[in-house]
Structures are given as C-alpha cells and as structure tokens.
Inverse folding.
C-alpha cells in the first residue's frame, strides 16, 4: 500500500476503500481532470457570486432543468431549499429563518421512506409530517396530510422501489393537484443519465450529492424550477457574505475550487462510457469472486442494486456454519493491516470496486479469502 506522507505526519491510519464513495471516508477518488480544474481555480480568483451563477448555468444545461447552483452537499441543498420554500424571496422572512413560520412550512413525507438527512428540513424551520407507518403509506393518507400549512412533499427517490412506498409518479400528480412543491432528495440517483435528467427537471426542487458522480465529498447541487432555486439561493452563503441579506445558509459556504469541481465532474459524468465503466468494475469483481470460490458456507456473486452506477461484489454467508458473522468480518478487516473498508448488511458482505487502485484489488481479494475461511 502506497505511503501517505501527510497521514504519517498526522498519525492518521490510511485504509483501502472498498466501501464506496461515502462521507465517512471523505467521498470518492477525484478524476485528474477535476483536480486540474480545482488547481486552476485555486490559482485564479473570481467573485463567488459570478462563479456560482456560471457554474449553476452549466449544471442546469447538463441536467436539462431551469436552474441550479452548487451547494456544500445534498444536506445543505435540503436545508437552503427548505428555507427558500418558506421565505419565497421575502427579505424579512429570510432574516427570520429558521423562525419564519408565518408561511406554510410543513413538509410531508412517507414514513416508509426513512431519510435521516431529512433533519435538514427542520434545521431551516420546516416541520416534518410523516405519513403512514414504516411498512407503508397510501396516496389517500398523503393527500389527507396536505393542508394549508403544507409547503412541499418530500420524496427520497432511492426508496421508490421499496415495498409499501407510493410511486413517485402518483406523488408528483398529488403535488400538482394540491399546488405544493415536489422536493426530491435524489442524492445518489445519478444513473441512468436519462433518469438523472428526468428527476432534475421534473420537480420544483431536487438535491444531488456531488461525491457520487465524482465531485468532492463536500459538494452537491440544488436544481429544479428557477423561481424555487432562486429563492433558495437568496438563503445561501453568498447572499449573506455579500451583505445583501442575513441569510440562514452562511454555514453552507463553498470555495471556488469546489464550485468548479462540481461542474467539471458532472460534465465528465455525462461523457462517461458506462459500458466500459461497468466492464472494468466487473473485471475487478471477478477477481474477488475467484478469490473466495470453493470456500464453504460462502456464496459470492455480482450485484447491481437498483440499476445504480456501481456494480458490487456480494458474499452471502451461512454465519452459523462458518462460525463468523458478516459484521464481525467487516470489523476485523477494518482493524487489519492494511485496514480495508468493506460493508456488511445482515449476513451479507459487499464491496464496491470503483474507488480501488489497481494494485488494491488483489489485496482486498487476499484478505477476503483469509477472513472467509472457517
């Protein structure tokens, strides 16, 4: 494993990331073209107002929506988007967030679409109304929850195929019928590209997480209808820093390198040859599968969750016969040398290979075999 001098200086333990592009490891691995754009931005100054405007226009063109701007992650997009819903570009209300409650501030969502990031709604003064039970909700229940205080219907799009969840198309029709905004948390819903564009252009507000498509771990996008995006932007950091408004979103600022990274990474994403991308992932996954072939009480295979942007290695364990648990193996590999991050879910282990360096694939394979032996 390659040495990392700054980690050594700080006493930080490096790890091999087979757990995917997640916040817990600081996002994903940046494309050299993204790093080059960040270096250019680092070398030359611009006003953030101009940069946010121009990168937002570029993002909107790529996504096929009316407007967009770069945020400090999808959580920030949820928060400033909610602030915009509540304030509706009124400076007096903007000054009161999160206490601006004289306008509708309720955000309705299905209890069967758990989204711990929905706390961002409350941070901006929104009131979450959960409908139904964790096992499901009905369209009639959602409609009954919509009243004069309803500002939006929140829909985490990754939950669309889960049992008991009202389909997005029906919720969209309900939002239109009741005259409330449709707010999509589409943080990781970045493939197929046609779906990504359809989501971005099909609601009043949509959040996207930058780390999933190759931008920095602290970047995201808020996009959708121009009037709603503009209202959110008035609650964002630049409006505060310019002195125009005492905006709630001051804590969600980004720098110029993050702004260009978010745009350049999305441009690269839309130029990606996904057939080649998946073929490379499958080649790496086959290395992991071959490493554990023949081991008793282990069934290894490829997985493609919800036709997402990543193919995964999956190993289902007969924990009782193996004498080990998937969670225990996850912890043991993280504590090993080198530290390797994989993930567990019930009796299943899974690994993402897209953030691995080529030489790390064989290391992960070797350690998987060692830990999956009885």
């Amino acid at each position: 494993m390659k040495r990392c001098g700054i980690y050594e200086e700080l006493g930080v333990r490096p790890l091999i990331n087979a757990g995917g592009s997640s916040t817990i490891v600081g996002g994903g691995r940046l494309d050299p073209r993204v790093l080059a754009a960040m270096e250019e931005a680092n070398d030359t100054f611009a006003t953030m107002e101009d940069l946010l405007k121009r990168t937002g226009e570029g993002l909107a063109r790529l996504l096929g929506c009316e407007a967009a701007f770069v945020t400090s992650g999808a959580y920030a997009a949820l928060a400033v988007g909610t602030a915009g819903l509540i304030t509706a570009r009124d400076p007096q209300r903007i000054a009161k967030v999160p206490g601006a409650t004289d306008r509708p501030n309720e955000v309705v969502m299905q209890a069967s679409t758990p989204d711990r990031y929905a706390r961002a709604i409350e941070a901006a003064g929104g009131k979450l109304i959960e409908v139904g039970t964790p096992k499901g909700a009905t369209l009639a229940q959602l409609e009954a929850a919509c009243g004069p205080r309803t500002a939006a219907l929140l829909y985490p799009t990754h939950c669309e195929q889960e049992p008991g969840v009202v389909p997005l198309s029906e919720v969209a029709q309900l939002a239109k019928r009741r005259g409330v905004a449709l707010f999509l948390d589409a943080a990781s819903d970045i493939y197929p590209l046609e779906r990504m564009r359809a989501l971005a252009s099909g609601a009043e507000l949509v959040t996207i997480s930058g780390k999933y498509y190759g931008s920095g771990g602290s970047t995201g996008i808020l996009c959708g209808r121009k009037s709603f995006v503009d209202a959110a932007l008035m609650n964002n950091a630049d409006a505060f820093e310019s002195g125009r408004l005492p905006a709630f979103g001051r804590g969600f600022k980004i720098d110029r390198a993050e702004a260009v990274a978010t745009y350049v990474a999305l441009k690269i994403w839309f130029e990606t040859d996904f057939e080649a991308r998946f073929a490379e992932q499958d080649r790496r996954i086959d290395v992991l599968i071959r490493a554990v072939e023949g081991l008793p009480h282990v069934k290894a295979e490829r997985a493609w969750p919800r036709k997402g942007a990543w193919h995964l290695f999956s190993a289902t364990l007969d924990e009782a016969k193996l004498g080990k648990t998937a969670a225990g193996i996850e912890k043991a590999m993280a504590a090993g040398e080198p530290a390797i991050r994989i993930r567990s879910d019930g009796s299943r282990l899974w690994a993402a290979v897209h953030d691995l360096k080529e030489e790390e694939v064989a290391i992960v394979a070797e350690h998987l075999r060692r830990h999956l032996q009885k």
Observations:
- The chain is about 45% helix and 15% strand.
- Residues 340 and 364 are 7 Å apart (CA to CA).
- The chain has a mean pLDDT of 95.
- The two ends are 27 Å apart (CA to CA).
